[in-house]
């Protein structure tokens, strides 16, 4: 099994019946851009020394850059106002305690990650992590994070740093679900 086949609860875009659409947790068509996914692992035996090599074969999913900074993050209860950000080189996350979720710009849940989740975000991935009840997360960003206060600001920054077109398309689709407003935004991004 290759790395992508070993992911569950995937986010990104897929092509189904000739149309590009957001993946709703499970890939049903042909993948166009895989933004994130949870690494499948076995339940570890607490009675013995046991391990699982989650994420083998992820070459190409991450891009190591000069800014690799393992970080322990505490999200307090009610952490619901964070803006979106992008991972130029990708990110590895492990939910130590609690739960967080990736949300759209209105705060609706895209995907939830409870304690014990091993989450992989691809190079060029984007998300808006929030937590209702709080969470403690160990994460390793590969080549830093890029923040934006709005859909337009983050999209411009993603384009400026050379993010793949498929990753920018995914970001625009989850941040601006209205096709008309998204098309107008895409036009301003192309013109600028």
What does this entry look like structurally?
By secondary structure, this protein is α+β, with helices and mostly antiparallel strands. The chain has one domain: Jelly Rolls (Sandwich). Strands 1, 2, 3, 4, 6, 7, 8, 10 and 11 form a nine-stranded antiparallel beta sheet that branches. The chain has a three-stranded antiparallel beta sheet with strand order 9-5-12, covered by helices on one side. Strand 1 and strand 2 form a beta hairpin. Helix 1 packs antiparallel against helix 2. It starts with 6 loop residues before the first strand and ends with a helix.
In short:
The chain has 192 residues and is an alpha+beta fold. It is built from three helices and twelve strands; from the N terminus they run ββββββββββββααα.
- The string of secondary-structure elements, in order, is EEEEEEEEEEEEHHH
Helix share bin: 10-25%
Tell me the name of the CATH homologous superfamily. Jelly Rolls
Q: Please compute the radius of gyration using only Cα atoms.
A: 17 Å
CATH topology: Jelly Rolls
Report the structural category.
alpha+beta
Number of DSSP E strands: 12
Task: Annotate the secondary structure layout.
Blueprint: E1 7-16, E2 19-22, E3 30-39, E4 71-75, E5 85-87, E6 91-103, E7 109-114, E8 118-121, E9 125-127, E10 129-130, E11 135-141, E12 146-147, H1 151-160, H2 165-175, H3 179-191
């Amino acid at each position: 099994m290759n790395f992508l086949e070993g992911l569950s609860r995937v986010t990104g875009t897929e092509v189904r019946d000739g149309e590009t659409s957001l993946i709703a947790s499970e890939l049903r068509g042909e993948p166009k851009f895989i933004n994130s996914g949870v690494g499948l692992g076995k339940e570890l035996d607490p009675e013995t020394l046991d391990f699982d090599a989650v994420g083998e074969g992820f070459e190409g999913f991450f891009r190591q850059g000069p800014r690799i900074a393992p970080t322990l993050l505490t999200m307090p209860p009610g952490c619901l106002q964070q803006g979106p950000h992008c991972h130029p080189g990708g990110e590895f996350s492990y939910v130590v305690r609690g739960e967080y979720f990736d949300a759209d710009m209105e705060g609706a849940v895209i995907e939830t990650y409870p304690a014990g989740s091993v989450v992989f975000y691809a190079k060029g991935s984007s998300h808006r992590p929030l937590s209702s009840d709080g969470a403690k997360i160990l994460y390793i960003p590969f080549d830093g994070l890029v923040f934006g206060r709005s859909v337009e600001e983050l999209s411009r920054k993603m384009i400026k740093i050379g993010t793949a077109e498929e990753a920018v398309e995914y970001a625009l689709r989850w941040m601006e679900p209205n096709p008309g407003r998204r098309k107008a935004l895409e036009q301003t991004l192309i013109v600028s």
